[in-house]
Amino acid sequence: MRGVATPIEFRSDNAAGVCPEVLAAIAAANVGSAPGYGADELTAQLQQRVREVFAHRDAEVFPVATGTAANAVGLSALCPPWGSIVCHESAHINVHECGAASLLSGGAVLRALPGPHGQIAPATLEHAFAQTWWDDPHQSQPAVLSVVCPTDLGTIVAPKQLQTLTGLARSRGMRTHLDGARLANAVAALGCAPADVTWRAGIDVMSFGATKNGGMGADAIVSFDARASAELRYRLKRAGHVPSKLRFLSAQLLAMLTDDLWLRLAARANAAAARLVAGLRELGLVPLERTEVNMVFLALDAATVTALAQAGLLFHELTPGTVRLVTSWQTTDAEIDDALTRAATVLGRG
Amino acid sequence: MRGVATPIEFRSDNAAGVCPEVLAAIAAANVGSAPGYGADELTAQLQQRVREVFAHRDAEVFPVATGTAANAVGLSALCPPWGSIVCHESAHINVHECGAASLLSGGAVLRALPGPHGQIAPATLEHAFAQTWWDDPHQSQPAVLSVVCPTDLGTIVAPKQLQTLTGLARSRGMRTHLDGARLANAVAALGCAPADVTWRAGIDVMSFGATKNGGMGADAIVSFDARASAELRYRLKRAGHVPSKLRFLSAQLLAMLTDDLWLRLAARANAAAARLVAGLRELGLVPLERTEVNMVFLALDAATVTALAQAGLLFHELTPGTVRLVTSWQTTDAEIDDALTRAATVLGRG
Amino acid sequence: MRGVATPIEFRSDNAAGVCPEVLAAIAAANVGSAPGYGADELTAQLQQRVREVFAHRDAEVFPVATGTAANAVGLSALCPPWGSIVCHESAHINVHECGAASLLSGGAVLRALPGPHGQIAPATLEHAFAQTWWDDPHQSQPAVLSVVCPTDLGTIVAPKQLQTLTGLARSRGMRTHLDGARLANAVAALGCAPADVTWRAGIDVMSFGATKNGGMGADAIVSFDARASAELRYRLKRAGHVPSKLRFLSAQLLAMLTDDLWLRLAARANAAAARLVAGLRELGLVPLERTEVNMVFLALDAATVTALAQAGLLFHELTPGTVRLVTSWQTTDAEIDDALTRAATVLGRG
Amino acid sequence: MRGVATPIEFRSDNAAGVCPEVLAAIAAANVGSAPGYGADELTAQLQQRVREVFAHRDAEVFPVATGTAANAVGLSALCPPWGSIVCHESAHINVHECGAASLLSGGAVLRALPGPHGQIAPATLEHAFAQTWWDDPHQSQPAVLSVVCPTDLGTIVAPKQLQTLTGLARSRGMRTHLDGARLANAVAALGCAPADVTWRAGIDVMSFGATKNGGMGADAIVSFDARASAELRYRLKRAGHVPSKLRFLSAQLLAMLTDDLWLRLAARANAAAARLVAGLRELGLVPLERTEVNMVFLALDAATVTALAQAGLLFHELTPGTVRLVTSWQTTDAEIDDALTRAATVLGRG
């Protein structure tokens, strides 16, 4: 008798568990009492560590519970309420945050631009700027450029490209934001310095994700902009985003940034995706996008989608016929191979 | 040579650590992968457990990272943006949340009423209602009554009193909210059923705190109102208050509600405060408020404040001359006795 | 010696003056004193008149000072703050209101769809619906369909088409909004009953413009939806949109709706545009859009744009090379003929 | 047989009509066409005139349709969304604007202080400051001081007192706002230069009312602060507060500021109130507040309230037993005398 196949997790990297180092750091943080709301020792250490890792002596870090909070509160410190935030139409802030940026900015709007690979081409940005009625209250004034890296389609915005985009924005007096929910995956893949894809590429404020990368519940806003930093303290509090026992978030982030744990975990997830894609290609399945980090997109017919699900693969069908598989720090080679075997069976190539 | 005295923690119950049961529950939750955003097993169990503990079969629980989030998002589901939220002038939402309720409700205002012991007297509420221009857009229409129990002054609103207040509010078509950041302390002190100080006393939506009571970072909105529950899913998401790995918050809350852990921990904090007050009274220090849970308020001259601080007591001076000491689940009898000894020395009564 | 040519006004119908009937109505309203904020006689008469003209016995009218106010406040009464408002990408609310709908709704977002003639095709709407993650807080839930008629490109959405669109929206539980800043021009052109392009076509709330049509400063929200009507009183007040001397706005609207003045004025503007287009076609200039009301769009090279401006034609260049000419109730045949003569000269076809 | 008495208007100065000069100015403005949204000649002239009248060469004026808009949008340009606006508890923004300041500022809160005569005493302000946790996100940071002059109780804040209050606020880094809905009445009563009760007394931004003073519907924000001015253009537009035919508002304000019309009209209203109070005192009725402009407050028993109303006096009973009578530019001596005769009859002193 055939049993039910063990599920293999590809729904999201946030479906994965917490890595042991983070769990240990939480336990270690639980010694005695400590002042609340970030006035503790661990948060001070994290502050220091972020400045070292990002090679920026004035960077300020604000740990938060969710990536949506990091994005929306971070953007609110950059964008006046009458401004617009220019982003790619696939950006998480545009598609999956239920209007958080508009709420927390007090009414700013998103101006979503198209472009292949989840990225805005410089020419597209310039065209949008040329269409804009600048300095005219009849239009929401473009005030912030928000870039996702890696994008929601799993591609990496090259540091040079990022610099070009932020340069265009800055030439219009705009400020710049990076949604780095999976920044670790990009940095691990690029092998660059963290500064190269952030402030050195012209970014003012970024969301830095750790939850998807083996954290328990700790993302952060990292601000390279003094004016934004000054506002963020208040903006976070009034949005309910200053946990009293903040030290337990700081502990997670500190563990991540110690001994390159964040990059090692991300590299594992990236490698798992690469292995998956290699196997899928052998089965004749070509991803819709180049796989540069830990996300794989496939166009599949409805029958295949169903069959793969029945074979125990856990994944999301984003829109009818478009499937996303995400690997995590926890995905093992054995799981990938098992998944590929099942896929082969489903596709009749076993 | 005299060494520096070990600090004794009375700043806040959120300065305390995480209790072992909660830490164990977090570790236990970290098995395999799980769907994000509350679609997991533990959150389902928590849902069930909340319904049992509060004896309400339609109660819905929404774990969140902070008490401010619980209050402000919860209120936003009760109050139209043009409404006013009636509360006591000492209420946390009025004094310490940096306008969160106004932000998240889209512009609702607070109408703060005075009254002894941090409580609104029914007559005061009736008077406020009599002064109101009802059904007239020239005034923010009172739409929600928000009561804190225990209050920010550490007193308990008796269930009967609560019922009277919510009854008055309901007679005006208003909805009702309870800030239960320390509800455990009130229920432990009253020895009543949790329902008696919540929905049976007329409450529609409440904030349920666990963080101050030995949690790591898990409070919750508990809704007894179907209309509010339906909105909360969206209101939380767009405020960045739906953690992807929600199960680790659910695990904490579930541990709390298992075997009455929440009440046992709160009872410990209450007992520590009672012991402290008894000792202080012997020293001639009479608290400003009756001490019904775990908070003690004292009027002290500046020299005494300084001397106590130098003696290693950690506490907050709320406004010049008014000091607050808070005990927690972690406060030991030995700490209380040590603190009293130091206080006696400071006061020259050693 | 050649003098400077008298300017001919095509910038906007809001550049035109106030028609004599409206001015007389204002003067007539200035007799004695009257209660403020809409409790006056004229506002009551307007209420009655709107119900007659739109053949809807529960319609409620709320005069406001601007079209943006009518749109944004009207939409705020239809859309929950976590919802999205589906509209055409050329819609005034999307392009020219500086985020007003997001502000006044408390954070709702716009979801702009493409389509020829400034109109959403039913298939486009269905496709957008098919892509939506319904009942999922990870996406702003489509909550309102907002249609402009006539569109910002000067085309009319046929009543049947409007009904199809609102029917699709309603099948998803959405509510419906009409931006009728120039509704008079559409009704005049269609020769239909006002109800046919509004509530009988499935509209819940609309903006009704009079300012562009010979008013001094009086647009209105007309609500066919009791729930929205109840909210609007408060939403208008808290947005600063309830003038104390409201009767002077009501007087304008009442004059408009008396003896079909609104339709007669709009018909004049429409006729002027038709005359203009006929002449332009003879000169070889084909409008970019069909001219169904009082707006004409032309693609012109930079030299022609400059020459026409130098010849005294007042118009807007919306984006480089795209020119809009708008006629009004005040535009005379002589002006059109004069403008055409000048254009002929510029184009070398004199 | 006795007929019904002609009503005498004391409900509000906004119940009065439009003065002939303003009506004439509107008619005169209706010549030809003009660019919209304030780009017209009359608005430019108004700008110049405001700078002359207020003796401030950088003042910027923004005409709006309502006083609530002037207050709430003006405040939004001064107060960060996490700030608090300190005002008197009787202030219009606190009592009668339905939360407009919170909406338009994106969540700022009001901190209302008590004090006799509708005024904040300097000591009360200092006490409030001493209680504040400055530079701490746990409290809404006091960011704006808003003073009403004349107050909602009809008293005048002396220029020196105003200077003291704004000085205290400025020493804390706060900005300052004046609700001058009836500023004309205060300036007329004081006989001072308009600058003396505004920017020379430390005011950054003010609401300047004309509607209650014989206008048709034209108040204004006047900004003496460049940063606020730059924001106001956008803040007004996105709130729906930039009328397309703005010139008709500018025309009204310009007429007001020509030949001291605003002061002459206000002086008339003030004189009428003085005459009324003199007569009431003879009848033994002492106003609750000193009558410094055009508002009279009386404490009356229910029977007297009813009898006066039946005698044809139109007024508001603000709360049970407290009656307000307001005179206007239109109130005649004959009306005052008639009203006093009727009051005498009611009071049995005929």
Structure description:
The structure is a homotetramer of 350-residue chains. Chain A is α/β, with parallel strands linked by helices. Chain A contains 13 helices and twelve strands. A seven-stranded mixed beta sheet of chain A has the order 2-8-7-6-5-3-4, with helices on both faces. In chain A, strands 9-12-11 form a three-stranded antiparallel beta sheet, with helices on one face. The first copy, chain A, has a two-stranded parallel ribbon with strand order 1-10. In chain A, helix 1 runs antiparallel to helix 10 and helix 8 crosses helix 11. The first copy, chain A, is globular, with a radius of gyration of 21 Å.
Sequence-ordered SSE layout with sheet pairings:
Four copies of one chain form a homotetramer.
Chain A (H helix, E strand, L loop, with lengths): L7 E2 L10 H10 L11 H13 L6 E5 L2 H10 L6 E6 L3 H4 L4 H6 L3 E5 L8 H10 L9 E8 L10 H13 L3 E6 L2 H8 L14 E4 L10 E5 L2 H13 L8 H10 L4 H22 L12 E5 L2 H9 L2 E2 L1 E4 L2 E5 L6 H14 L4
Helix pairs in contact in A: 1-10, 2-10, 8-11, 11-13
User: Compute the gyration radius of chain A: what is it?
Assistant: 21 Å
What percentage of amino acids of chain A are in beta strands? 15-25%
The number of helical segments of chain A is 13
Overall pLDDT confidence of chain A: 97
Poorly predicted runs of 5 or more residues of chain A: none
Largest sheet geometry of chain A: 7 strands, mixed
Sketch the topology of chain A as an H/E string, one letter per element.
Answer: EHHEHEHHEHEHEHEEHHHEHEEEH
Spatial shape of chain A: globular
Classify the oligomer: homotetramer
Structural class of chain A: alpha/beta
